[in-house]
Amino acid sequence: MGTGTLVSVQDYLSTSYRPDRDYIDGILIHRNVGQKDHSKLQGEIYAWFRERRRALRLAAFPEQRIQVAPRRYRIPDVCVVNLPEPDEQIFTSPPYICIEVLSPDDTFPALQDRFDDYLAMGVPNIWVLDPATQRAWRITVDGHLEVLDGQLKTVDGHVILPVPALFPAAD
Questions:
Q1: Phi, psi of 120 (to 5 degrees)
Q2: 119 — phi, psi (to 5°)?
Q3: Which fold does the domain 33-166 belong to in CATH?
Q4: What is the DSSP letter of 170?
Q5: Taking the alpha carbons of 9, 31, 44, 116 in that order, is the dihedral positive or negative?
Q6: What residue segments make up the domains of the chain, in order of their start?
Q7: C-alpha distances out from residue 19 to 29, 51, 74, 133, 139, Å
Q8: What is the SS3 assignment for 64-77?
Q9: N or C: more exposed end of the chain, with fewer CB within 10 A?
């Protein structure tokens, strides 16, 4: 959902939004964030990758701006890049993985534009996790593929993330 007011790329890049917003052809797009289940899962994903940073030679970034096209910026819940990490403050090269955590108001049709941007940019791995159902999907040009064996895998097999590990038992 946009704000209705066109914003220049320069104004977008020089302004802080809380929460941060995607920028699509001059329109600010609200992102669904802020609920505990979303935040908790986002943290678990980041922690899983942080613990394996050296072994996997990957770095995870929560809510990192990515320029997916000249007038399009997306902010995945977590993006993962190969080490050494990029020097730039806003990533312009495709991350290795873009991960989205569903919020109650999210739907796959509404998220498809975001997935299409990642695919067009050349992101090889797009993952979606739902904290409410503890289900996960891989997004490809062929569609949304539900992870039925409990393991999110990258297309090259370098990363195998056991989905149940992201949902620890309640304290």
A1: -65, -35
A2: -65, -45
A3: tt1808, chain A (3.90.1570)
A4: P
A5: negative
A6: 33-166
A7: 11, 26, 13, 25, 25
A8: CCEEEECCEEECCC
A9: C
- The C-alpha atoms of residue 26 and residue 151 are separated, in whole angstroms, by 38
What's the CA angle centered on 127, arms 144 and 63, to 5 degrees?
Answer: 135
Structure-block tokens of residue 164? 């149940």
Residues 23/6, Cβ–Cβ less than 8 Å = no
Question: DSSP readout, 34-98?
Answer: --HHHHHHHHHHHHHHHHTHHHHTEEEEET--EEEETTEEE--SEEEEESSPPSSSSB-SPPSEE
pLDDT tens-digit profile of 112-170?
Answer: 999 999 999 999 999 999 999 999 999 999 999 999 999 999 999 999 999 999 998 76
Burial of 102: CB neighbours in 10 Å, binned 0-12, 13-18, 19+: buried
CB neighbours of 137 closer than 8 A, spacing ≥ 6?
A: 127, 128, 129, 144, 145, 146, 147
pTM above 0.90, yes or no: yes
